[in-house]
């Protein structure tokens, strides 16, 4: 098994505001990256839906799914890079640092005939990602040094 072109891809940046549709319209919040992180994506990492690992500040490394592109259903003008972390949080984390490692490509972005159809497809993406991320080749990247924290260095 080989990685798709340009993967794994590591990115780190601040979580900024999007259109607020993720939570309100879809019930699936996505942490949007600041624009320069989107611009720094290498050409071979094209638009589409990805899965991988995500960490807020120096916290736990969680499973994630990510959408990269213009959200054809909503016809966005700005390209976005949005991460849905597969863990429920009691608080928002705007302004905090998000580190991601994109490890696998799922599918291209699509338009849908209804919001329900889009949401159903995202749940399917989540279910595939949950399973795929248990594969040893992907699991290994969860403990990549990119995610290392210096928590252990501050022993007293
Ligand atoms: C796993 C995943 C798959 C997605 N797939 C699509 C898609 O195929 N087409 C699309 O228009 N938007 C897709 N989206 C993006 C949603 O439309 C987007 O997250 C939503 O508009 C929230 O935007 P906001 O952060 O600006 O509120 C996907 C999002 C996720 C997390
Ligand atoms: N599991 C989660 N995955 C991603 N973001 C989450 C999650 N739980 C809470 N959030 C918060 O919700 C925000 C995203 O919600 P969303 O409705 O997509 O708004 P926006 O359009 O501003 O991105 C994130 O920036 C983050 O602060
Ligand atoms: Mg969002």
**End-to-end CA span:** 44 Å
Q: Please give the share of residues in helix.
A: 10-25%
Q: What structural class results from the helix and strand content?
A: alpha+beta
Strand residue percentage? 25-35%
- Overall mean pLDDT stands at 94
What small molecules are bound in this structure?
A: flavin mononucleotide, adenosine-5'-diphosphate, magnesium ion
> How many beta-strand segments?
6
Q: What profile does the largest beta sheet have?
A: 6 strands, antiparallel, barrel
How does CATH name the architecture? Beta Barrel
CATH superfamily: Riboflavin kinase-like
The tally of structural domains comes to 1
What is the CATH T-level topology?
Answer: Elongation Factor Tu (Ef-tu), domain 3
Structure description:
Residues 4-134 form the Riboflavin kinase domain. Its cofactor is Zn(2+). It catalyses: riboflavin + ATP = FMN + ADP + H(+). This protein has helices at residues 21-26, 35-39, 115-132, 136-139, and strands spanning 9-16, 31-33, 48-56, 61-69, 80-85, 97-107. It has a single domain (9-141), classed as Elongation Factor Tu (Ef-tu), domain 3. With 156 residues, the protein is α+β, with helices and mostly antiparallel strands. The chain is 21% helix and 29% strand. Strands 1-2-5-4-3-6 form a six-stranded antiparallel β-barrel. A hairpin with a 4-residue loop joins strand 3 and strand 4. The chain starts with 8 loop residues before the first strand and ends in a 17-residue tail after the last helix. Magnesium ion (MG) binds at residues 18, 22, 30, 32, 82.
